[in-house]
Task: structure prediction
Amino acid sequence: MSNFDDWVESPRVRPLNAAEPRQAGRYVLCWLQQALRACDNPVIDAALTLGNMLGLPVLVYHGVREDYPYASDRLHHFILAASRDLGIGCRERGIACVQHVDRADRREKGLVYRLAAEAAAVMVEDQPAFVARWQAARVASGVPVPCYAINAACVVPPAVLDKGIGGRAAFLRQHEPARAAWLDWSEQTPAVGPYAGPLPFLPDRLDEIDLQAVIARLAIDHSLPASTAFAAGRAAAEQRLKRLVEEVLPVYAAVRNDATRPEGASGLSPDLHFGVLGPREIMAAVMSAKAGSQHKRKFADELLGWREWFRYQASQLDAPERYDRVAGWARASLAAHASDPRPAAETLAAMLRGETRDETWNACQRQFLALGWMHNNLRMYWAKRIIAMTPDPETAWSTACYLNDRLSLDGRDPSTYGNIAAMFDGAPGSEERAIYGRVATRGDGSTRSRNGGAAWLAEAAGRPVPNVSIPGGDYRRPYLG
Result:
């Protein structure tokens, strides 16, 4: 295979086992979990590159189970609409794409392993958080062919950077100069036509079935409805990207911290989490937009400087969602004040439904409940206050992650875990405070003090929200290690 050594040593490619590609395979299997797009997708591109070396077609597979953590109408609707459009986009590119929605009358056990049994190699996403990470590792250890993890979520692959970078400033010193070399991409035309051979199951054609009817019959959380604010699918994501260019970007640097201004946020984080849009595609739109350079720089700092910093951090951690990722000094300081009286303590039910005594916190939480998304400035107040509203710091961390992961379309993500961690540590303060110790507190003045801010908070705290179910088990366990 010409150029195979160069390909496998690319910074986007990480071998997960030591097997060699199998010449007798029927196809190169591209198993997607979150990078649900047919364009600007390095996982598909890597599969095509290897497939062309081997003279084999690529088979893209995406499946959705009922039993992943926090499975709900909200998440299933967003995922399946994206998967439907992934299949359409792949077929338009001449690539076979098969899908499966696990349900009572269509059970398929071990489907990835069965597909891998006929593959020359398996491509997966290099995801550093949530179930995608351990599922990829488990599959790699159980298939007889090579399994390669491909970074599809970053402009600059973390492997380009030194290991063990300790702070964002040091990260940016390496990341910023590397960006130009990684921003461009080109879609590869498959050298071999779409795979049309036998399959070990009957695929679902998501563009030919009633997704809402299928979702309604699933054993998932039906108390959390689909978001009406974030339409699902590729076309809706492209409209949000168009809104970024035309409405958000021209004023971004000036209003991004104002939660009362809808043009202050791109709203692209759900599309980035589920890979409906790629960061290179977004940056191409930003760089060609008619907006001031200060706005473009600030947006690039958020998309690349912060988001990719959080993904780099996650790649260096065993479990980015666990409390032990919080800086040691902060955990020690919070632990020293764990027995402090907590007059602002609330029940999980009141917090989950946004019915606490804190109007501003309710306004934040009800964005999550109603929209499946929260403005970043509100997220900081929301996470800080949870430390005072729960009985101890470990429960505070677990509660923040649980609410984020269950309710938000961009939960279960390195960026949202990184944001929560930043509220639990960050730079240590010089004085000791009750409950927080040396961890900084945060007020609501950045929203309440704005023109009309108090009225906006009151209205947001009273918005109608779904009556979500209260968890019956221990919601803290996944986050404590």
Observations:
- The first helix runs from residue 4 to 8.
- The two ends are 43 Å apart (CA to CA).
- The first strand starts at residue 13 and ends at 15.
